[in-house]
Amino acid sequence: MTRIVVVGAGSIGSCVALRLAEQGAEVVLVDAREPADGLSAHGFGWVNAVDNGFEPYYRLSAEGLRAHERLAATTDGEPWFFRRGNLHWADSAEGARRLAGIADGYRAKGYPVEELDAERARRELQPGLALDGLHGPLLYYPDDAHVISDRLVSAVQARARSLGARLRTGDAVTGLLGSGRVRGVRLASGQQIEADAVVGCAGRGTRELLGHVGADVPLVEPGDDSGITVRGLLVRTSPVPVRVERVLHAPHLSIRPHSGGRLVLHCHDVDEELTEEGQDPAAAEKVLARLAEVLPGTAGAEVTVEDAFVGVRPMPADGMSVLGWVPGAESLYVVVTHSGLTLAPVLGEIAAQEVLGEPSGMAAAFRPERFAAA
Ligand SMILES: Cc1cc2nc3c(=O)[nH]c(=O)nc-3n(C[C@H](O)[C@H](O)[C@H](O)COP(=O)(O)OP(=O)(O)OC[C@H]3O[C@@H](n4cnc5c(N)ncnc54)[C@H](O)[C@@H]3O)c2cc1C
């Protein structure tokens, strides 16, 4: 039986571990911390086909939506995947032009986008929506989806464990065994786990992990000169008295339904002011203050911040996913990407297939070699 260690029990590592276990591999999924403490479990969880101008990435994320459906059909417990669309609107002429341009790009690919007026949006999609400064139509993407990300991670891990995968948390990988050919991992506890292959799904820990074999996948770092803001605040509210069923992208606030009537909130402009990871209750109050401007039914309802998690996006330097065998380190495979909640199920399928010996055409555009060549 093939023995595989998967490093990182976020959304991606959990999906990789599950697909490997399904195919009969002996899997150990290792994480330095508890799964509920990581970025994936706190994630915003908008699942969409990403049109960033690179066709293979669009195809990968569009397949990601289908892979969520395949995965959700196999896990037990509370549902975590909801194909209920995403509503987007602007409050300035410039914003409306920008959203119209994005929508045109999706339509050209055959990805459905509908235009709604305020009355129809309130009647059919979100009663009580405040749209006073609305410019242009509301844009509705019915094929978009969202996940309750902590449920996703635990449901996938539960299924992987039911198939024999072992989960080891609170024990960081501090080294890789073998030279030239990786033969397993060394843990902070001093233990070693031998394996036929190691799959690095360590998110922001990827560079350090690859550093053990002298390899690297450059990631955008907080505060570097890339112009990309990678630090981000995810605010989870207490239960709200308004029913929200789908992702809402208001001009200055993004909203995703969470379990028990809670919401997860995110603001891009607030991300730009963050200076460190961890909890940031002051910034979270700023985000929460915007909720009643979008959903006035939440005003005066004692809605509080339950969690104010600041994480860092694992964003490869060119913005695209990275997956494949690490150059110069036989038996070490790496998967790291932004949009990891959208992509985890499809990357899990692809990585498991490749690690077990069958290359995937869909992965060809995303190899780590591109950085070595640069
Ligand atoms: C504000 C914000 C909003 C976002 N919105 C979305 C969105 O709407 N849709 C979407 O698809 N994506 C979104 N993302 C991105 C998404 O959250 C990430 O791409 C995804 O969670 C990454 O998953 P992962 O499994 O790679 O990483 P993680 O969830 O970070 O998991 C990696 C794990 O590896 C472990 N690890 C690292 N090093 C080691 C080591 N040496 N030994 C053992 N364990 C180790 C860590 O402890 C961690 O648990 C957002 C991110 C942010 C910050």
What does the model show?
- The protein has 374 residues and is of the alpha+beta class.
- It folds into two domains: 3-76 and 148-221 and 317-373, FAD/NAD(P)-binding domain (3-Layer(bba) Sandwich); 82-142 and 227-312, D-Amino Acid Oxidase, subunit A, domain 2 (D-Amino Acid Oxidase, Chain A, domain 2, 2-Layer Sandwich).
- Helices cover 31% and strands 24% of the residues.
- It has twelve helices and 21 strands.
- Strands 6-7-5-15-16-17-14-19-18 form a nine-stranded mixed beta sheet, with helices on both faces. A six-stranded mixed beta sheet has the order 9-2-1-13-21-20.
- Strand 10 and strand 11 form a beta hairpin.
- The radius of gyration is 21 Å and the shape is globular.
- The two termini are 37 Å apart.
- The model has no long low-confidence stretch (mean pLDDT 96).
**Beta-strand fraction estimate:** 15-25%
Mean pLDDT across all amino acids: 96
Number of helices: 12
Specify the CATH class of the largest domain: Alpha Beta
Kindly report the spatial arrangement of strands forming the biggest sheet.
Answer: 6-7-5-15-16-17-14-19-18
